[in-house]
Amino acid sequence: MKKFLLITIGIIAGITVLANLGAIIGLAISAAVMYAGWHFYRKSESGFGRFCWAALGVIGALSAIGNIPAFIGLIAIAGLWYVYHKWNDRNPDILGASDDPFDNFEREWNKLTK
After folding, report:
1. Which of 8, 39, 52, 104 is 20 to 30 A from 85 in CA distance terms?
2. C-alpha–C-alpha distance, residues 71 and 17, integer Å
């Protein structure tokens, strides 16, 4: 039942990511424009240059606000990541690897006395 639930969540999250892929790409471009505006605003020394770079940053921010559906896609990507890690969760029961401090002490003592 657990695997079925993981498959179902993975399929729904995958479809959601594909449906919002354009918005995610738009959000990435908007973030790049905002970063460029901020970066060059800090390096600019003239007032007109600062105004132009600030305007570019504001345009990028408004474009990012317009890509609100991309956040749903980002949440779906996080869901896919969660499903992937839960699906591949390998918790091997290695002999002698317990959390009991006395077991660890005995294992280390055996290593030292050899």
Report:
1. 104
2. 10
